[in-house]
Structure formats: C-alpha cells, structure tokens
Amino acid sequence: MSHLEFPHDRRKEERREAAHAFKRAEILAAAKRVMARTGAKGLTIRAVASEAGYVPGAVYFYFDSKSAILADLAVHELSGLTRELRSSSSKDAADLASRAADAFATASNIFELDTGKRASPGSERALMGRLISLFQTVSEPLALDDLPPDQAQARALALSATSIGLATLARTGRLQKLGVTAAATLREVAHCLKTAPARQEKTGS
C-alpha cells in the first residue's frame, strides 16, 4: 500500500520548517548583536543563547559550533552584499569594488572564522559559493570574456582581493596614514586589469 500525503500533513511540515527557519534566524540575529558588542572572540554559544533567550542546548540543536554560526553569518552578509551590488545602477568595476571594500570593513568580524575548528563542509561550500558569486559581480564590468579563462579568473580575484586588503588597511587606520583612499586605489587597479593585454603563454622552441 503506497503512502498517501494529505494536505494537513504538508501544512504541518511547512509549519515545522517555518518554525525551524525562524528560530535559526533569531539565533543568528542574537549572534550578530553579541559580535557587535564583543567581536568574534567574545562570541560563545552560551552568550548567543543568553542573548536569544534560549538555553545553550537549544542553540546546539541548530548550530553545532561557534564556527557554524560565524559561517552562516558570513553567508548571509555576502548574499546581501551581492544582491545590493547587482541591483546597483553603477556599472563601474572600481565603484563596485569600493563598495564591497566598505562592506568588508564594516562586517570584518563576520569573516573571522574560528581557525581552531573549521566550519562544516556544507557551510564551507556555501561560503565559497557566495564569495565566488560576489567576486563575479564585482569584476563583471571589467569585461574579461575575451581573455583565456585562467587569466580572467585571476584578474577577477585580484580586484576583489585588493578590495579586501584595502578594507583591512582602512579598518586599522593604516590606509589613511599612507595618504591614499580605497576608491582611488581601486580605480587604478581596475583600469590596469581591464586594459592590460592578455598574457601570451610561452611555447617551447
């Protein structure tokens, strides 16, 4: 006899999934508030549970470690940033990279993943997927389609890596001491990446 799925069974499952998603979102919001006060180093399961109004065991039901929480926060931040850049009217690579740098500087704590205990493979895949999507969005105005794939990928990564590095310098106050701005630096880097000819591979004689 085959299993029959009734409408009320589906509704029950949908309510269960909605409740699960809501509680995960509550925990992530609490974690973000804790990080705003204490930074990533002060983020603990106990602190997040207290902020969310749960016992620690309830948080562990949704996230098995601090790294899992940090990874999910990073995924959400990267997704939001990518959507924002894609909806922007600007089609200038330097401008998009500059805005990404500002976002990285603001949300720097979220990218301080716990090196002592890495995120799960699933979280790591999701995080890398969001990073790749962001890098592609930032570099799209460079119009690198005519380059060999490996060179196009390297230039796309170079622009985003530069924006992340500049965000770090800006956050520590060192960029200002150098007498340059992230926007001006990224304009120069984007121009060089866009106009440089394709590198010719050396062939054997």
The computed structural class is: mainly alpha
Order of helices and strands: HHHHHHHHH
| Overall residue-averaged pLDDT value | 84
Indicate the low-confidence ranges by residue numbers.
none
Hey, roughly how much beta strand do the residues contain?
Answer: under 5%
Estimated radius of gyration: 21 Å
Distance between the termini: 73 Å
Largest sheet: none
Compute the number of strand runs: 0
> With helices defined by DSSP (H or I, 4 residues minimum), what is the helix count?
9
Q: What's the number of structural domains? A: 2
Gross morphology is globular
Proportion of helical residues:
55-70%
Set out the fold topology.
Elements: H1 7-38, H2 45-52, H3 56-62, H4 66-86, H5 93-106, H6 121-139, H7 149-171, H8 174-177, H9 182-195
